[in-house]
Amino acid sequence: METTLIQIQNMYSSFGRGERKLADWLLQHPSELIGLSISELAAACGCGDATVIRFSKKLGLSGYQALKVNIARELGGSFIGNTATTESDSALELYQKHCSDIILTLERTRNRLSGNTLEAVAGALLKARTISVFGLGCSASIALDATHKLVRLGLSACAYSDSHMQMIIASHLTAEDVVLAISHSGSSVDIVNSLAEAKKNGATTICITGYAKSPAGKYSDYCLLTNAEETKHSILAMTSRIAQLTIIDTLYIYLVLHGDDKIRNAINSTEEALETKKF
Q1: DSSP string, 158-209
Q2: What is the CA radius of gyration of the chain?
Q3: Digit-coded pLDDT (tens) for 53-88
Q4: Same fold, 4-75 and 96-277
Q5: What is the pTM of this model?
Q6: Which of 93, 164, 172, 254 is found 20 to 30 A from 76 (Cα to Cα)?
Q7: Which secondary-structure segment (H or E) carries 200?
């Protein structure tokens, strides 16, 4: 069966100028593709996002994500995060390697995060009439965790992991509302569309992502940036989830420490109500 890279070589003469730039880059740097958002790849090749999508579809693929998956699969190998793994690794050795990847991700994220942006986001959350938290796929559980913490503080937050509901909610938001979206790639079509709709209606838009130069970043007033070099040959979000959760925990702690009496009263009320849930 013809691989994607061989298909690119065979179809090279049929590509337009922008598509040839993409083809040249992919043939020279295939292993670097998995770490790039669609906007970053386009910038690296000197073309637009639309060219990347058109190029992917010309190869018979549904879009950029499918292109990444195919090339990653074809390159083969077993790399989890930044640490090479082998079938001979014991369960404990795999755990230790994964811990090393998590520590590296948290260190890189700490160096990338903006303190001013964190505080601005915390302020927006405190003042919001409602907080809609959007996440799909692996990010859905992160959105639920964020909502759990915000609600404990007495804030009006709700998580949405259905793309239709996200768009419906976004269409009814105002300048008094906030959207917090979680997307490691920043390229989830439904997340981007919901952010665009919310921003159009005046809501404050926030995204926790690994890529500032991504479609989601274009529609976000604030980007909280993680730095997780997810698998070289897999797209499953692993260490990025830990970085996202750590950012959410940080916002929660900041709000507890800097919130007003209303926040503190809400925490006390929450703890008292939950006492009946434990023996």
Answers
A1: EEE--HHHHHHHHHT--TT-EEEEE-SSS--HHHHHHHHHHHHTT-EEEEEE
A2: 21
A3: 999 999 999 888 889 888 877 776 444 444 566 778
A4: no
A5: 0.74
A6: 93
A7: helix 189-200
